[in-house]
Design a protein that fits this description.
alpha/beta, 14 helices, Aldehyde Dehydrogenase, Chain A, domain 2, Aldehyde Dehydrogenase, Chain A, domain 1, 2 domains, oxidoreductase, aldehyde dehydrogenase [NAD(P)+] activity, six-stranded mixed beta sheet
Length: 452
């Protein structure tokens, strides 16, 4: 049994029954059967369904958003934005998908060939709680367009969201088995990956979860896409618009209460502007209002659970023990709910392991860099390589950042964010493979060469 806990109040919400082994078997077979017919559909049928699902998300956006607020503490404003982004994602693949799947003519030394993108089968998605709708849609929209079918193992804490997504797909007129929610626990995932009817797996989550899924996929010789943690740098140079950089840095650190893989977690600031940046950034973080996620004037809600808050508090304590200074916030707030204040750590020892960890909460580490080379070296001195944000108006500096920051994504003079059009993913211990754009669509397809 899964029971939702409202992190703003600590109160129990809806409960959901865990599927039995027989029920899981029925759904996997249903997915296998659904693929046999869905793979033969024309693009017009697929795009029509994607558009219809988008319509369902739009029509039910308030109810869907409120489920996310209750289950993981996201503010209503950000929950509504997430649901609306999902509709945009479905419509993007409805509009652009056919062109992405167009065959390509290839000239060869012996004549000609054609490259065709063909569906593969049921794809298993193991998804996290932090963006409970959008993470799923990033896999689901291209899965439908590709002619594949999807099975979802969502986080235990957001089973209401998982059920609602399945409801939207069914209401849009999807054939039985095209997309199904599997209300199961993590210990059932290995067996699913080993099942011959499932052709691939995609996971967004922690390093530990990624290693387990990758190991299981390796044993089964199946394709896997992993989007794991990040400790994204936010680099500010003297040529940047400092006020805009500071304003964006605050948002980039506290969005989703700091619980995003691509949140800006390490502020790396050139020595010439470090003091000014820190003063303005401190004022901005001090003004962040934590409170009722349903309230329009709340900047950030609670963390997703008491356990998640304690993890962040423990990390702060370890960093302080190694000599860092907590100059603002980063503390448990009184009263009900998993609330904490936005915080800032300085004088963090760069060579200590805890400084290289991902802080999955609204606390920033601020570092001083002597020059651009030092800033890039510090940015790269972590095991992660997901995203990054750089602030400069110097073309030569921009080129250096684009070429030498070790990350799957770099945003220049803006906050990093995902979009349906652009590939999303990382390198190093942040995972491999890509979601979104044409590249995400192609990840779980058979690129077949036809000669002649």
């Amino acid at each position: 049994m899964f029971t939702s806990i409202n992190p703003a109040t600590g109160e129990a919400g809806d409960s959901f029954a865990e599927l039995t082994a027989d029920e899981v078997e029925t759904r996997v077979q249903r997915a296998h059967d659904a693929f046999q017919s869905w793979r033969t559909t024309d693009y017009a049928t697929r795009t029509a369904l994607l558009s219809a699902i988008a319509d369902q998300f739009d029509a039910n956006r308030q109810r869907l958003a409120e489920i996310a607020v209750r289950e993981m503490g996201k503010t209503l404003k950000s929950s509504l934005a997430e649901v609306e982004k999902c509709a945009v994602g479905f419509r993007h693949y409805a509009q652009e998908g056919p062109d992405m799947l167009a065959s390509r003519a290839i000239a060869t030394a012996t004549g000609k060939a054609t490259a065709r993108w063909l569906p593969m089968g049921p794809v298993l998605a193991v998804m996290p709680w932090n963006f409970p709708y959008w993470q799923v849609v990033r896999f689901l929209a291209p899965t439908i367009m590709a002619g594949n079918v999807g099975l979802l193992k969502h986080a235990s804490s957001v089973q209401g969201v998982a059920a609602a997504i399945e409801e939207m797909v069914i209401a849009a007129g999807a054939p039985a088995g095209l997309f199904q929610n599997l209300a199961i626990k993590s210990d059932k995932v290995d067996a699913l990956i080993a099942d011959d009817r499932i052709v691939a797996v995609t996971l967004t989550g922690s390093e530990g979860a990624g290693m387990k899924v990758a190991e299981a996929a390796g044993r089964a010789l199946k394709k896997v896409v992993l989007e794991l943690g990040g400790s994204d740098p936010f680099i500010v140079m003297p040529s940047a618009d400092l006020d805009q950089a500071v304003k964006t840095a605050v948002t980039a650190r506290i969005q989703n209460t700091g619980q995003s893989c691509i949140c800006a977690k390490r502020m790396i600031v050139h020595a010439d502007i470090y003091d000014e940046f820190l003063a303005k950034f401190t004022a901005g973080m001090a003004a962040v209002k934590a409170g009722d996620p349903m309230s329009a004037d709340t900047d950030m809600g609670p963390l997703s659970s008491e356990e998640q808050r304690q993890t962040v508090l423990d990390q702060i304590a370890m960093i302080e023990k190694e000599g860092a200074k907590l100059i603002l916030g980063g503390e448990k707030l009184p009263g009900k709910g998993a609330y904490m204040s936005a915080g800032i750590l300085v004088d963090v020892p760069v060579d200590h392991a805890v400084a290289k960890e991902e802080l999955f909460g609204p606390v920033a580490m601020v570092f001083r860099a002597a020059d651009i080379d030092a800033a890039i070296a510090l940015a790269n001195d972590v095991p992660f390589g997901l995203g990054s944000s750089v602030w400069t108006n110097d073309p030569a500096e921009r080129e250096q950042f684009e070429r030498y920051i070790e990350a799957g994504m770099t945003a220049v003079n803006q906050m990093l964010a995902s979009s349906p059009e652009a590939p999303f993913g990382g390198i190093k211990r942040s995972g491999h493979g890509r979601e979104l754009g044409p590249y995400g669509l192609h990840e779980f397809m058979n690129l077949k060469t036809v000669a002649g």
